[in-house]
Amino acid sequence: MKRQRKKQSYGYKIILAILLGLAALGIFYLHVQKKEQPIQNETEIAILGSAEVSQGKMAEYIKKRNPNPKLNCSVEALVQFYYEEAQIEGVRADLALCQAIKETGCFSYGGDVVPEQNNYCGLGTTGNGVEGNYFSSPREGVRAHIQHLLAYASTRPPRQKIVDPRYELLKEKRPEIFGKVTTWVGLNGVWAVPGKTYGQDILTMLASIKSMN
Questions:
Q1: In this predicted model, which residue has the larger pLDDT, 164 or 19?
Q2: More confident residue, 176 or 38
Q3: How confident is the prediction for the chain on average, in pLDDT?
Q4: Which DSSP category does 198 fall into?
Q5: How many domains does the chain fold into?
Q6: Nearest CA among 34, 138, 159 for reference residue 90
Q7: Residue ranges making up the domain that contains 160
Q8: Are residues 1 and 101 both part of a single domain?
Q9: CB–CB of 60/167 below 8 Å?
Q10: Alpha-carbon distance 23 to 73, whole Å?
Q11: pLDDT tens, position by position, 74-106
């Protein structure tokens, strides 16, 4: 009887070992599968689309990088404006904000544009002290930025009244660009000249925000 119990116990141990081994193999397989999933090529990341980072995380990043941003509203309000305006036009709000952070030195300015302009993407600036366009409020400045991105990425007109003073100019004078620059990397040498890594810098910034604890 004792020998039979020992055999049964030994048999259970073997079965348990086999099951644990299979479970370990399954976990390893899932891990390998996850690692092997292709990462989207940076040249394919589109200007249009939905945000992948929350408003809270974007605001946190701005405050960490610049505790005293030169804004005519709170950081939270500006982030909210970007998410609201971008959603209306179908533009990636998180990446548009990264572009604004890049263009303004995280809202510290110091170049041709001054904070009073509410110009977050250098609209109308050509260098040599040319300040560019002024906007009456932070929301209007955000809307102009989003509409200008839309002009690059789509021929569909904005869903709201056009406040981007360069929208029609791009449409009429640059048909080779209007609605044809659909990715962030595609802005290289177009939005910024020479701007060889302009789009990549924006994408790298978002990646670091995603990994932020």
A1: 164
A2: 176
A3: 87
A4: H
A5: 2
A6: 159
A7: 45-210
A8: no
A9: no
A10: 54
A11: 999 999 999 999 999 999 999 999 999 999 999
